[in-house]
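Lab notebook, bench 4. Still working through the backlog of constructs that have no structural model yet. Next entry is a single chain of 157 residues. Request: give me the structure tokens for it.
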Amino acid sequence: MPKAPFLVSTLLFMSLLFLLFPHQVAEAGMWSNIKGIFSAPEKIDALEQQYMDAKQQLDAQKEQLTETLQSAEQYAARQEELMQQNEQFRKTNEQLMEQNNTLIQEMEQMKQKQASFTQKLINTALIIMILIFAYILSLRVWRYLVWRKQKHASRGV
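Model written out:
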């Protein structure tokens, strides 16, 4: 039986140690546990409501992200469309510039032709005027010679 006093003394010593060292006070008694059991549905409802709110927020964010993504896709599509239009306008502009250069060359050729025609017309008019003047002058000279000849002929008779 010597073991029994040792066991009792160890238990007594452990009890004293347990009382001397500070420990946390348990706040929940049996009554609060029972209350907790009965208030569990309210807590579950509150958690469920928080879950539903979080789910709604997540759905709203998802919808907003989807709209943003659609807007970005529309913007990218519009950007691509504008790039294609810009390329078409650039090609059209190059074609118009080539046409413009061709028309400018044709216009310069027409101006040269017109200047050449005008010069030919002036030369022709000048030649005609010289010929008319020469004709008139030759007529005068011929009349003068005829008059002189007749004057000479009439003196000799």
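Notes after review: The chain is about 90% helix and 0% strand. The mean pLDDT is 86. Flag for follow-up if needed.
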